[in-house]
Amino acid sequence: MTQRFDVIVVGAGAIGTSAARWLAARGRSTLLLERYEVGHARGSSGGPTRVFRLTYDHPDYVRMARRALEEWRVLEDEVGEPLMVTTAGLDIGRAGRSSAEALEAAGERFEYLTVAAVTERWPALRLDPATEVFVQEDGGVCMAERTVLAQGKLAVDLGATLLENTHVLQVVARGDRAEVRTDAETYDAGVVVVTAGPWARPLLLGAGIDVPLEPSLEQVTYFALDDPSPLPTVIDWDVTPPRTPYTVPDPTRPGHFKVALHMSGPPVEADGRSFEPDRERERRVIEYAAGRFAPHVPDGGTETCLYTNTPDENFLFDRIGPIVVGSPCSGHGFKFAPLSGLVLADLAVGREPAIPIDRFAASRFA
Ligand SMILES: Cc1cc2nc3c(=O)[nH]c(=O)nc-3n(C[C@H](O)[C@H](O)[C@H](O)COP(=O)(O)OP(=O)(O)OC[C@H]3O[C@@H](n4cnc5c(N)ncnc54)[C@H](O)[C@@H]3O)c2cc1C
Fold it and tell me: What ligand 1 atom has the least distance to the C-alpha of 305?
């Protein structure tokens, strides 16, 4: 007999585990289906760290990040471990001014610093004396893999059923309910939340929902300072060619950090993509890090990871009949994970979403 649930969540990355946690907390019978194991690194949520920042070039995102920060603290209290570690965040370069304006418009504090003040606080940074730079003290580091595992465990502790190594082959809307077919079973639910990241597009197409989600093959390179000292997160807006380098320290390993070039990879299919780093992009990152940081050595090589991009780089949060879609990526979705799951749970249970989501509607692609 087909098993019935209130809600089925397809995909247990940062967003699916968060949605399942919120749905279980609201007493909904919730089935969370994951093709691999929770915490794997084949999709978008693998690896140790992600940037958290309030600095965005639109006040709506700044407000959303502020709300997400509250939700990180709630999550940490619930699971009893630090998952978003505040380090402060630096925005370097004149192109960061639009973020400064958005912070101001949203009523957030930040401070322009002299290069001498920056290097006194973070001696490992190397900056030209004329560099324009501001600090936002709430910037920090999301512990990525730990968060996914913690949210998944919390969802199960709250009553969700988790099935790993379960491949969803099809999601089908049937009137006001939906059916999910896996490689082993068929399930029925009042609502299906699709949080399949880079795999979402074909799954949604099968359900009659066509959204332009395009995966790209990104990569990060790891380093360790010869002489460990604290580091903030760093976004370097003015580097040419304009593929913004960003730096993320690992709060659990002093002096260790990673650097990547935002949105620098080619479009790929999520299945069958390469795990081999692009050596030319790796070389550019090594060259950048050599100029920006005190002496350091490679530490852990280069890892690949998938972005799921929308044409306007805004997220996708919507409900179409019995199907809720949630794809907060374009390379900046992790920091919102505890909030994104709440929004998707709101959509699934028919509540007013916790934040305004008009800009994230699927209809904008029509
Ligand atoms: C290199 C890199 C750096 C990033 N840096 C930052 C950053 O600094 N700050 C920031 O905020 N964000 C950052 N991001 C973005 C952020 O990591 C993503 O927005 C977030 O991880 C997206 O999570 P997700 O749950 O949507 O996708 P995923 O983590 O990919 O989860 C989707 C899950 O669905 C499962 N699945 C797919 N299809 C099926 C199926 N048919 N059946 C069952 N299960 C299925 C997959 O196995 C996977 O576990 C970065 C992303 C990358 C790749």
Answer: 53
100 lines ligand 1 (CB under 6 A): no
Distance CA 285, CA 127 (A): 17
Q: Is 25 in the pocket of ligand 1 (CB under 6 A)?
A: no
DSSP conformation class of 293? B
Give 107 Cα–ligand 1 centroid separation in angstroms. 30
Q: HSE-up of 143 (CA within 13 Å, CB side)?
A: 18
How far CA 238 is from CA of 15, 56, 133, in Å, comes to: 31, 15, 11
Interval between CA 127 and ligand 1 midpoint (Å): 33
Q: How far is the CA of 264 from the centre of ligand 1 (A)?
A: 17
Residue-wise pLDDT tens digits, 210-268? 999 999 999 999 999 999 999 999 999 988 766 899 999 999 999 999 999 999 999 99
**Closest atom of ligand 1 relative to the 327 alpha carbon:** 26
pLDDT per position as a tens digit, 123-138: 999 999 999 999 999 9
3-45+145-213+311-365, what's its fold? FAD/NAD(P)-binding domain (3.50.50)
Domains in the chain: boundaries: 3-45+145-213+311-365, 85-140+216-307
285 lines ligand 1 (CB under 6 A): no
- Report whether residue 199 contacts ligand 1, using a CB cutoff of 6 Å: yes
**First-residue to last-residue Cα distance in the chain:** 38
Second CATH level (architecture) for the domain 85-140+216-307: 2-Layer Sandwich (3.30)
